[in-house]
Amino acid sequence: MPVQAGNAGDIILIGPSSVTQADSVIRNEQGFDKAPRFEESSENPEGEWNTYSIVCDSAEMTVRVNGVLQNSVTDVSFISGPIGFQSEGSAIEFRNLYIEPLN
User: Fold this and answer.
1) N or C terminus of the chain: which is more exposed, having fewer CB within 10 Å?
2) Per residue in 76-95, is it b (16+ CB within 10 Å) or e — as a string?
3) In the chain, where does DSSP find H-type helix?
4) How many Å apart are CA 76 and CA 54, to the nearest integer?
5) H or E segment at 27?
6) Is 61 helix (H, G, I), strand (E, B) or coil?
């Protein structure tokens, strides 16, 4: 999922993965499949922190940005594995990261 300004909530599929979204998954300009967010950006202004809630429950994933449901996909083909954070071209900061099992 990109953290690029203005794109928070998009889901980018990298590698041999697949999902189903209520709206269609599209191919982006870099050649990756993308599940676009539902709403206009709910990001805070530059310099302010944003809050993400990403829930993966079995083969379903939901993404909220600052409390706004931005994406929901089903039929997620990978339901376990590593979690990665990536920054391209500029610094990025994370704080208060929590990974919790679903009960």
Assistant:
1) C
2) beeeeeeeeeeeeeeeeeee
3) none
4) 14
5) strand 26-27
6) strand
